[in-house]
Amino acid sequence: MTAIVPNNKLTKEERLHSKKLIDKLFKEGKSLFSYPFKVIYISVNEESVYPSKLLISVSKRHFKKAVDRNYLKRLVREAYRNNKEPLVSYLKTYNKSLFFGLIYVSETILSYREIERKLILILQRLIEQDEDHIR
After folding, report:
1. Triad 110, 102, 87: Cα angle to 5°
2. From CA 53, how far away is CA 46, in angstroms rounded?
3. pTM, entire model
4. Residue 42: half-sphere exposure toward Cβ, Cα within 13 Å
5. Residue 126, Cβ neighbours under 10 Å: how many?
6. Rounded Cα distance, 82 and 108, in Å
7. Which CATH class is domain 15-134?
8. Domain-by-domain residue ranges, the chain?
9. What is the spatial distance between Cα 135 and Cα 133, in angstroms, rounded to a whole number?
10. What's the average model confidence in pLDDT over 24-52?
11. Which tens digits make up the pLDDT trace of 44-99?
């Protein structure tokens, strides 16, 4: 008997890279703040194979070295990849899609544990925000 392993990958299709969608996100999106992230999101009432699309941004102003920016983006991607399941299952249940951007605003490099803890809170808040709009 083989165990069923959930698909815990973060594919290119789950990343927000369309210029048109990114522009729409920044023009029409709502925002919330949870240190060390500013979150911009837009919810769409349509079903998709990949119900959530993610954009990660780290400021060149705060982190001059590309090595540091890339390291932080890797930490955020990993934290999201490991904790995205509640959000994805919620979106699939209600046949919705969510596009959101995580903008890292801290001037210091936080540990993976702190980033993961904050990202979990953000994902829970995104679900709560959407539930409020359903009611």
Report:
1. 105
2. 13
3. 0.87
4. 14
5. 21
6. 23
7. alpha beta
8. 15-134
9. 6
10. 91
11. 887 778 899 999 999 999 999 999 999 999 999 999 999 999 999 999 888 899 99
